[in-house]
């Protein structure tokens, strides 16, 4: 029904406007008595065999909603009804920021892909916390970044602010230094700046009564040498794991008319590269740390491929847009089979 009727209509309109329209619809229908229970009955798959314990947290199933979809933590309770085992909010920054000028979100229909250059548009971390206080038991990841106006030499302070502000309200943290849409952000992936940033956050973490898992989200465009550095950094800083991968700046093999739009590419063109990165990290580290696999998951087979490559959990984003909410159910059903 989604791909036959709903998606063709939604795809007639500007993708960013559709995103906010869809949020409004989901928010509205969840206020109708009985609808949340109906949605859960259609999409939610509950089975003890799907449960996984990863970096000390118990996930009801291994399929999550990737960061960027519910940036400002507006619909995490509602999205959990579609069967997700966890929701990652953000990327959040210390201060609100509008992001990059519009138009900044593009569908590449012929490639089943999306290009975005949103630029960490969000209402700021304190604004999101007010909504996170209303969490009804959803396992939440907090994806954190720096404000655009903050120079790289001061970036650590932005991450510290986000960490401290979110600490009580999320189950794990994700350090985002791999988005291509904030100027110079990816320079923080270099070995020494990254070690400094992660060590600083780990020091804050160890001062807490209960430590929260800290993960690093990496780009798919890293070389093998850089990936070996990531393995060394994870071991050195003792962070909990890695999310592989963020969007790519590569445009190899695209056929859509708007393929030259600048920004991060997500969707089917990323499927193989994300899996390669997962496999490389898992094999070369001898599975020394957990990996959340994300990038180009448009089917249950795509998800299983990433899990078999070495991922412990998976996340969807663009596949959720192209395939619809049944994708989460299909992955969980396939895992049970």
Automatic annotation (TrEMBL):
<keyword id="KW-0285">Flavoprotein</keyword>
<dbReference type="GO" id="GO:0005737">
    <property type="term" value="C:cytoplasm"/>
</dbReference>
<dbReference type="GO" id="GO:0106430">
    <property type="term" value="F:dihydroorotate dehydrogenase (quinone) activity"/>
</dbReference>
<dbReference type="InterPro" id="IPR005720">
    <property type="entry name" value="Dihydroorotate_DH_cat"/>
</dbReference>
<comment type="function">
    <text>Catalyzes the conversion of dihydroorotate to orotate with quinone as electron acceptor.</text>
</comment>
<dbReference type="GO" id="GO:0044205">
    <property type="term" value="P:'de novo' UMP biosynthetic process"/>
</dbReference>
<keyword id="KW-0472">Membrane</keyword>
<dbReference type="InterPro" id="IPR005719">
    <property type="entry name" value="Dihydroorotate_DH_2"/>
</dbReference>
<dbReference type="Pfam" id="PF01180">
    <property type="entry name" value="DHO_dh"/>
</dbReference>
<feature type="binding site">
    <location>
        <position position="71"/>
    </location>
    <ligand>
        <name>substrate</name>
    </ligand>
</feature>
<dbReference type="InterPro" id="IPR013785">
    <property type="entry name" value="Aldolase_TIM"/>
</dbReference>
<protein>
    <recommendedName>
        <fullName>Dihydroorotate dehydrogenase (quinone)</fullName>
        <ecNumber>1.3.5.2</ecNumber>
    </recommendedName>
</protein>
<feature type="binding site">
    <location>
        <position position="176"/>
    </location>
    <ligand>
        <name>FMN</name>
    </ligand>
</feature>
<feature type="binding site">
    <location>
        <position position="267"/>
    </location>
    <ligand>
        <name>FMN</name>
    </ligand>
</feature>
<comment type="pathway">
    <text>Pyrimidine metabolism; UMP biosynthesis via de novo pathway; orotate from (S)-dihydroorotate (quinone route): step 1/1.</text>
</comment>
<dbReference type="InterPro" id="IPR012135">
    <property type="entry name" value="Dihydroorotate_DH_1_2"/>
</dbReference>
<feature type="binding site">
    <location>
        <position position="181"/>
    </location>
    <ligand>
        <name>substrate</name>
    </ligand>
</feature>
<feature type="binding site">
    <location>
        <position position="91"/>
    </location>
    <ligand>
        <name>FMN</name>
    </ligand>
</feature>
<dbReference type="GO" id="GO:0006207">
    <property type="term" value="P:'de novo' pyrimidine nucleobase biosynthetic process"/>
</dbReference>
<feature type="binding site">
    <location>
        <begin position="67"/>
        <end position="71"/>
    </location>
    <ligand>
        <name>FMN</name>
    </ligand>
</feature>
<dbReference type="GO" id="GO:0005886">
    <property type="term" value="C:plasma membrane"/>
</dbReference>
<comment type="similarity">
    <text>Belongs to the dihydroorotate dehydrogenase family. Type 2 subfamily.</text>
</comment>
<keyword id="KW-1003">Cell membrane</keyword>
<feature type="binding site">
    <location>
        <position position="176"/>
    </location>
    <ligand>
        <name>substrate</name>
    </ligand>
</feature>
<keyword id="KW-0560">Oxidoreductase</keyword>
<feature type="binding site">
    <location>
        <begin position="317"/>
        <end position="318"/>
    </location>
    <ligand>
        <name>FMN</name>
    </ligand>
</feature>
<dbReference type="InterPro" id="IPR001295">
    <property type="entry name" value="Dihydroorotate_DH_CS"/>
</dbReference>
<keyword id="KW-0665">Pyrimidine biosynthesis</keyword>
<feature type="binding site">
    <location>
        <position position="296"/>
    </location>
    <ligand>
        <name>FMN</name>
    </ligand>
</feature>
<feature type="binding site">
    <location>
        <begin position="116"/>
        <end position="120"/>
    </location>
    <ligand>
        <name>substrate</name>
    </ligand>
</feature>
<feature type="binding site">
    <location>
        <position position="245"/>
    </location>
    <ligand>
        <name>FMN</name>
    </ligand>
</feature>
<feature type="active site" description="Nucleophile">
    <location>
        <position position="179"/>
    </location>
</feature>
<dbReference type="InterPro" id="IPR050074">
    <property type="entry name" value="DHO_dehydrogenase"/>
</dbReference>
<feature type="domain" description="Dihydroorotate dehydrogenase catalytic">
    <location>
        <begin position="50"/>
        <end position="335"/>
    </location>
</feature>
<keyword id="KW-0288">FMN</keyword>
<comment type="subunit">
    <text>Monomer.</text>
</comment>
<feature type="binding site">
    <location>
        <position position="143"/>
    </location>
    <ligand>
        <name>FMN</name>
    </ligand>
</feature>
<feature type="binding site">
    <location>
        <begin position="246"/>
        <end position="247"/>
    </location>
    <ligand>
        <name>substrate</name>
    </ligand>
</feature>
<feature type="binding site">
    <location>
        <position position="217"/>
    </location>
    <ligand>
        <name>FMN</name>
    </ligand>
</feature>
């Amino acid at each position: 029904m989604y791909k036959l009727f709903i998606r063709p209509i939604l795809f007639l309109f500007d993708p960013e406007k559709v995103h906010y329209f869809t949020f409004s619809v989901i928010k509205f229908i969840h206020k109708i008595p009985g609808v949340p229970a109906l949605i859960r009955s259609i999409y939610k798959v509950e089975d003890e065999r799907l449960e996984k314990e990863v970096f000390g947290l118990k996930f009801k199933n291994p399929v999550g909603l990737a960061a960027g979809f519910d940036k400002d933590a507006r619909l995490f309770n509602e999205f959990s009804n579609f069967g997700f085992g966890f929701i990652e909010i953000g990327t959040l920054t210390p201060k609100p920021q509008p992001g990059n000028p519009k138009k900044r979100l593009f569908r590449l229909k012929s490639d089943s892909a999306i290009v975005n250059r949103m630029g960490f548009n969000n209402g700021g971390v304190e604004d999101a916390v007010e909504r996170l206080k209303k969490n009804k038991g959803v396992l939440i990841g907090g994806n954190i970044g720096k404000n655009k106006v903050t120079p790289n030499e001061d970036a650590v302070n932005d991450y510290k602010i986000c960490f401290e502000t979110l600490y009580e309200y999320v189950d794990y943290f994700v350090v985002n230094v791999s988005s291509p849409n904030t100027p110079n952000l990816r320079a923080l992936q270099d070995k020494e700046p990254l070690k400094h940033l992660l060590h600083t956050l780990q020091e804050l973490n160890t001062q807490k009564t209960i430590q929260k898992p800290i993960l690093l989200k990496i780009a798919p465009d890293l070389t093998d040498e850089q990936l070996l550095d990531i393995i060394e950094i994870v071991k050195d800083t003792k962070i909990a794991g890695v999310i592989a991968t963020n969007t790519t700046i590569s445009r190899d093999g695209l056929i859509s008319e708007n393929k030259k739009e600048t920004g991060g590419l997500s969707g089917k063109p990323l499927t193989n590269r994300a899996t390669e990165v997962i496999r490389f990290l898992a094999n070369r580290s001898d599975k020394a740390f957990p990996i959340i696999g994300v990038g180009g998951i448009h089917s249950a087979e795509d998800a299983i491929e990433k899990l078999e490559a070495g991922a412990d959990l998976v996340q969807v984003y663009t596949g959720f847009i192209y395939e619809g909410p049944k994708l989460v159910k299909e992955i969980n059903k396939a895992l049970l089979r």
